[in-house]
Amino acid sequence: MGESPATRGCAMPRRPGAYGSITSKAVKLSLATLSLVVVVLAGSVGASANRAAGTLNVAVIAPFSGPAANLGKFISLSCYAAAEEVNKAGGVLGNQLGCTPVDDTGDPADAVPAVTRALATSNITMATGLETNTAAVTIPLINNARVPFFTANGLPAFDNTTDAYFWRISPSDAQNGAAYAVWAKLKKYKSAAIVVQANAGNDTAEPGIVRALKKLGIKMTIKLDIPGDAASYASVVAQVIKTKPQVVITADDPQTAATFFSQYKQLNNGNVPPLITATDSLTPDFFNALVKVLGAQFVTKDISLVGYHVNPSSAAFAAYKDGLTSSSHVSASDVPVVTGIGVIAALYDGDIAMALAMNAAHSTSGPVWNKFIVTVTAPGKNKVVVHTYADGLAALNAKKQIDYVGTGGQILFNKYHNSAGNFSATGFNTDGSPRLLSIFGGGLIANALK
Amino acid sequence: MGVVVQTIGFGIAAGAVISLGAVGFTVQFGISNVLNITYGAFMTLSAYLGYALLNRGLDVWLALLLVAVAMALISVLFNRVFLGPLQRRGAGFVSVVIGTVAAGIILQGVIVILVGPGAITYGAQFGTTVSALGFTFTVAQLIIIGMTLALMLGLHLLLTRTRIGRAMRATSTNRTVARACGIRTERIIDLTWLLTGFLCGAAGVALAVTTVTFDFSLGSIFLIYMIAAAVLGGIAQPYGAMIGGIVVGVASQLGAAYWSPAYQDVVAFTILIIVLLIRPRGLFAAAGVTRRNLSAT
Description:
CATH topology of chain B: ABC transporter involved in vitamin B12 uptake, BtuC
Largest sheet of chain B: 2 strands, antiparallel
Number of strands of chain B: 4
Structural class of chain A: alpha/beta
Strand order of the largest sheet of chain B: 1-4
Shape of chain B: globular
Distance between the termini of chain A: 69 Å
Strand content of chain B: under 5%
Largest sheet of chain A: 7 strands, mixed
Strand order of the largest sheet of chain A: 7-6-8-9-10-13-14
Order of helices and strands of chain B: HHHHEEEHHHHEHHHH
CATH topology of the largest domain in chain A: Rossmann fold
Oligomer: heterodimer
CATH architecture of the largest domain in chain A: 3-Layer(aba) Sandwich
C-alpha cells in the first residue's frame, strides 16, 4: 500500500472512490460477516411455556418464529382445541391438558437444543407437531425420551418406521405428491410443470408427483426446484413458460409464490395457468399474497389445494370446531382457515386419541399408555364408536371398549403406526376461507404410485 | 443467444436492487468506518414503511421517496444516539459491529411484535412489460435501474466534484488529520449517514417492489448479497458495489437458467470467490491501489 495523501499533509485525497485502508477493512469485514452468520444461525425467538400443577403438558414442537411461523401457530391451534375439549369433559385422570409451544424455528440446528431443553424442563407427557423440516432430528429425541407423539411430518422415511412412540394419521409426502397428479388427471390436464421450493418436504413429495404423472399419462413439461425468497425468478419463469404447461404443480411459501407467479404474469402477457398446490397453503398469507398479484378471480377459480381430507360434517369435526371457537388461545379469524387444513385436524385427532389412551390405560406414563392408542382407535366388534373426547371418556368410564373415529374418518393404523386416510381438493372462497371441490379415496393414490 | 441476452437482462434487473443497497452500505462503511449490519433491518423497516404509505393510497414511487427521506433521518439519529457514543467511549471495531448486529435483531423483533411474522404484499407494482433488443423489463425494473444509475452518478459527482465530497474522502482516509485540517468531521459523518440512509430506504422499498411479497427477514436475507456485491467490487468502492451487484444478479440468473435454480446462489458466490482469489481486494479496489501506488512514486 502506498502512503495515503492524508498522512503526508493536509491535501485532499485526489483519487475518487477509495475511502480508507482497504486491507484492514477487509479483515474487519470478514470478522463482522462471520459474526453476522453466527448470529443469524443461532437466532430464534423463544416460545412461552405453559406449566401448571396437575397439568399434563403437550409439547407442540413446531416453528413459532421465522418464515414458517404461521405453520407453528396453526399446529398449536389444534392442541388448544383438543385441550379445550378434554378439559371441558373433566380432563385426563384428574389432570388438565396444557399446550407447551416448543419453537423449533423450522431449522434442525435450532430444533435440537429447543426440544432437548423442553424435554429436560417442561415435564412433557406427550407431543404433537414435529413437522417435515425438523422431523428427522426431533423425532429421535422424542422417541428416545419415550414420549408418545403424533407428527405432521410427511417424510416417506417414516412410512416403515419402527419407532414405538411414533404415530401419524396423515399421508406421507410421496402420497401427497401423487395426490396432486391424481387431481390433475381428474381435471383432465394433459401436461403439467412441476415448480417447487427446495425444502425437505417438497424434496420427498417430488418423486411421488413424477411417478404418478407418468403412471397417469400426464406429460411433465419441466421439473424445477427453486430457492425460497429470491429477488427474481425471471430466468426460471422463462423456462417454464417455454414448455407451455396446462397446469403448474407447485409448493412454495407465500413470498416465493407471489414473487414467482407475479413474474410469470409479467413475462407471459398477463396469463398464468391454473395452479395445484398443497393444503398447507390454505392460509391468509398465501391467499392475500396471491390475490394481490394474480387477482381474486384467478385465486378463487384457478387454484386448487390438495391434501389429506377431513369430513366437515362429522361429529368429530364439530367437536374440533367447538374446541377452536371456545379456546381463549384461538382468534375467531383463524377458525375458518385452520379448519380447512387437514393435517392440522389430524393432529387434533391425535391429541384426543392420546388423551383417551391415557384413560383407557389408567396411567399418564407414556410407556404404559402408548400401546392403548391402537386400543382406542381400532374398529372392532362390541366397540362403541365415539367421535368426541367426552363420549369416549363416558364410554370408558362405563367399562366399554371404544373406537375413536376422528375428523378424517376411521383411523386404521398399520404396523408402522401410519394411517393415510382420504384426500380432497379445496379452493378458496373470496374471503380466503376454504371451499371443498372434491374428495378422492386413498386407493387412487395407491394405484398412481404402483 | 436470445435466451442468454434475456437472462442477462433479468440479472441486471435483479442486480440493480442489490446495487442500490450495496452502494449505500459500502459508502457508509468506507467513510464512517462502521460495518453497519443494522442496514439489513433498516431495509426491512423501509419496506414496511413503504407498505404503510401504499395503504394510505400513495403512489409507490412517491412512497419510496418519502421512505428514503425518513430513513435518511433515522440513519443519522441511529449514528448520533447509538454508534457515535459507542465509538467515543472506546468501543473497538468489532464491538461496534456486534452492536449493530444486536440493534438489527432488536429492530427485527420490534417489527415482528408490531406487525406479526406474516408476509406483507405490495401487489402488482411492476407496470407493463417492455421488450427490446432481446431484453425484457417491466416499467418498475426500468425505473429501479434508472434510479440506481442516477443515484450512483449523483454520488460520484458529489464525491469527486465538490468540496464536501473531498472532505468526505479526507475524513475517510484519516479522520484525525482531516479534523486538524479544519474539516468538521462530525458534520461530514452526519452527511454520510444521511446519504446512505437515503439509499438504504430507497433500496428497501425497491426490493419490496421487486419481490412483491416479503416478511421481517427481507433485509437480513439481502444483506448477504449486498455484502457480497461490496466485497466483489472492492470494499468502500461505490462503483465496485454497483458492478458487484450486477455481477451477483446476472450470475444468479445465468446459474438458474443453465444449471439449476436451486443452486443459483452457489453460482454467484463461486464467482465471488474466484474473483477474490484473482483480485483479493475486489475488482475496483485493486486498480485504485495501483493508481495510488503509481502517483506516490
